[in-house]
Amino acid sequence: MNTRYYQVCAFPDENGKYAVRVVIYNSVTGIPVAYRERSVPYKLIRALISKRPSQSYKTWPTASLTNIPHPTQPEMLTASSRLIA
Prior knowledge:
Radius of gyration: 13 Å
Helix content: 10-25%
Strand order of the largest sheet: 3-2-1-4
Order of helices and strands: EEEHEH
Structural class: alpha+beta
Number of domains: 1
Distance between the termini: 17 Å
Shape: globular
Number of strands: 4
Strand content: 35-45%
Number of helices: 2
């Protein structure tokens, strides 16, 4: 089964949008299947944060994900843990 983990910038870019990296990974092994990066308006960030469990995303104090490392396998496995949710 595939699950999503989000990395979100806390500050907007010069266009007023927020960078989001979506990591789709196998929730059993924690191995990434795909990565996507998008710039989205604050309204979508607010919806994402309100609907997702807190362990399924991480916000970074930056406006760009360029220097942010991809999540580790333990971070992704924690995101899909039913014990933490």
